[in-house]
Amino acid sequence: MAWSRDKIHRGKAKKLFVFSVKLVGYIVWKLSCLFPRSKNKWLFGDVMGFAGNTKYVLIDFLKHNEKYHYHLIWITHNKQLLPQIRQFGIEAYYWLEPKAIWHCLTAGCYIVTSNTKDINCYLSGNAFYYNFWHGIGLKAVGKQSAEYLKVPERKRNNFYYKVLFFYWAHRLPDICLTTSEFMLRNIFMKQFGQPEESFILGMYPRAEFMLRPKEDILNFAEKYCLDSECHFIRRLYRWKKVYIYMPTWRDNGKNIMVEAGLNFDMLHKSLLKNNSVLLLKFHSKTRIKVDEICKYDNIYLIDNNWDIYPILPFTDCLITDYSSIYSEYMLMNKEVIIFEYDKTTMNEDRGLPPYFEEKTPGIRISTFSQLLNLIDSNKDCHLNEKDLQNVLETYWSARNIKIDFYNDIRKHLFGKFD
Predict the structure, then answer these.
(1) pLDDT truncated to tens, each residue of the chain (418 aa)?
(2) Residue 374: exposed, middle, or buried by beta-carbon count in 10 A (0-12, 13-18, 19+)?
(3) Which domains does the chain possess?
(4) CB 42 within 8 A of CB 108
(5) Cα(162)–Cα(60) distance, integer angstroms
(6) Which of 86, 191, 303, 394 makes an SS bond possible with 142, Cβ 3.0 to 4.6 Å?
(7) What global pTM score does this model have?
């Protein structure tokens, strides 16, 4: 009984600590609303690195900026990436250094891939917030997430929960990009709790990039990616078939390789049989044992500092689960294997939408032995034409809408543009 009481006290103390930390952040955000902001200063960021939709937007904007000379700045959360980003001719700062803090307090526009946390959610008060988003919505997030919905509706907007959920449920974008009518009405309007006017329909910049000719992609990589990544892409030509495994992040933080039952000795032999290679791209927080992978010459762990989008067009088959990379990969009409070894757990933790299976057609497996059989037999895992067109209509019905994002932001900031 005493042990149970201690556990309850520890739980309450932890909640109080978390709330106190977030309360400080919320107060800082309130104070940041007092700073005058320049509409000519635009900040870009992605907490995952120099990648995502915002990377491609910034590079495009630099080409358009000769006339108006807006102050375009990348804010990074990884100090080690600063030399790389600056090497590309981009003004960049680490988010906690004094210059970055000043720019975060005075910039008139935050341009992000996920939410203002990509730059600095605590200093974003009254900045115009343009969200290019980071996926297609195969998992519940925001106001549709299990974490938010488990709170009684009458309490969700009280001060305590407003502070706890502030940066992803209450600091909402002024404009958010989405890629189809289905996603707009079934996902985005619900997860943000915002009207249709807060969204713009169009193509993700990073997805548009993947569809360019391969030579153009290589030329881009040579300008805006690390030399090691460019060299790696060219090496992929030596293999007859390139698989890439990109599982989504698990909230439990468990070792995915162990949980999925991956046996790298067996994978190595099957891949070797068909002159194939397997690339592994895990979330940066995923726990892995690198030593288990490095000894194989046909299994590669992708560096988390690399931008995956210049690599994807040079692969042949995606192995994934509940990740929105599924829908982006289907734009290229390539093979896909859906490896859902923990579907029940994922559904409990994150809440998969009821249409998940219907809207993600493909070969579905739940065990490593099934995955090994597909690789060993070199099975063609393309979608049939009907399923492919359904996927494109579901997730990408706005793919042919061309948007001048540079001038769209100018329109929202200044009310008009020429």
Answers:
(1) 555 556 555 667 888 888 999 999 999 999 999 999 999 999 999 998 899 999 999 999 998 898 899 999 999 999 999 999 999 999 999 999 999 999 999 999 999 999 999 999 999 999 999 999 988 766 677 887 778 888 888 888 899 988 988 887 788 999 999 999 999 998 899 888 899 999 999 999 999 999 999 999 999 999 999 889 999 999 999 999 999 999 887 666 566 777 778 888 999 999 999 999 999 998 766 666 666 677 888 999 998 889 999 999 999 999 998 888 999 999 999 999 999 887 777 666 556 777 788 889 999 999 999 999 999 999 999 999 999 999 999 999 999 999 999 999 999 999 865 5
(2) buried
(3) 6-203+400-414 (3.40.50.11820), 215-396 (3.40.50.12580)
(4) yes
(5) 36
(6) 191
(7) 0.90
> Helix H segments across 133-248?
146-149, 159-164, 181-183, 189-192, 205-210, 214-224, 227-235
CB 381 within 8 A of CB 361: no
**Do the Cβ atoms of 165 and 378 come closer than 8 Å?**
no
